[in-house]
Amino acid sequence: MENFRNFVEYYDEFFPVTESELSFFSELSAAQKKPSKFLEVGCSTGLCALHLAKLHNDVTGIEVIKNFLDSAFLKNRSPILPLRYFKLSTTEMGNFLGKNFYNIIYTLNDRIVLIPTKNQMKDFFHNCKQMLTENGYLILNILNFEYLFSIADEKKNSEIPTKTTIRAKLISHITCTQNGVLLNRKIETGNGKLLPVFENTKIYPLTKTEICEFGKQAGFTNFEFYADYNKNPLTENSPELVCVLS
């Protein structure tokens, strides 16, 4: 079960857009034809898409969660920014968005793991490859599940590093069960109130090994893995990863 209404108010605080993140994207788009065409899959509140559009990129965001879309539309108050949002899922995007059109497709903050099945995850990689230009990039920012699995306790629970802001904390953990991997995530406000976000939500724990496997099947030939947007090396103890496929 999910409660995204609780999540929207604090989302931009837990997942701010950093200068290193924007520099990372700008470096990749530097060799592309201007304006670079970006597609954000699972754009959430639209904050990153908005920043990229302000840097003179052409940006499309797709999202299926109404609370997030409403927030994204409210942020985009300029009628002249090259920025648009659509209510589309990963299973729909290949049918409605252009082939060989986007220079960079990206998904941030673990959103991709909400794709529920292995076959749908494979389809995601295939669709992205079809929608990218010849020299385009697919960027994934997800939890490093191989690390999280390695630190799981005897009950197969693994704590995800807590995100803390001035107003609240985002407390998360995953549990491995016979029925799959479940995500639990809650917000603790400054007065100690707990607001549920995910309660035993089934996710697909996409690993580095599978990124390479599914990516190669889709036609990608180059894979770069980092621990963060500063391009620090990915290690077995890195809590999350950033991957560039081309």
Notes on the structure:
The protein has 246 residues and is of the alpha/beta class. Helix content is 32%, strand content 33%. It contains 8 helices and 11 strands. It has helices at 4-14, 19-29, 47-54, 66-75, 90-96, 118-131, 145-150, 208-218, and strands at residues 37-41, 58-63, 83-87, 102-107, 132-143, 157-164, 168-177, 180-189, 194-203, 223-226, 240-245. A 7-stranded mixed β-sheet has the order 3-2-1-4-5-11-10, sandwiched between helices. A 4-stranded antiparallel β-sheet has the order 6-7-8-9, covered by helices on one side. Strand 8 and strand 9 (194-203) form a beta hairpin. The chain is globular and about 50 Å long. The mean pLDDT is 95.
User: What's the number of helices?
Assistant: 8
Strand order of the largest sheet: 3-2-1-4-5-11-10
- The SSE order reads HHEHEHEHEHEHEEEEHEE
Characterize the main sheet: 7 strands, mixed
**Beta-sheet strand percentage?**
25-35%
For the terminal residues, how far apart are their CA atoms?
A: 35 Å
Fraction of residues in H or I helices? 25-40%
- Secondary structure class reads alpha/beta
Count of β-strands: 11
Overall geometry comes to: globular
- Calculate the mean pLDDT score and round it: 95
Segments where pLDDT lies below 50 for 5+ residues? none
Radius of gyration: 17 Å
Indicate the topology.
Blueprint: H1 4-14, H2 19-29, E1 37-41, H3 47-54, E2 58-63, H4 66-75, E3 83-87, H5 90-96, E4 102-107, H6 118-131, E5 132-143, H7 145-150, E6 157-164, E7 168-177, E8 180-189, E9 194-203, H8 208-218, E10 223-226, E11 240-245
Parallel strand pairs: 1-2, 1-4, 2-3, 4-5
Antiparallel strand pairs: 5-11, 6-7, 7-8, 8-9, 10-11
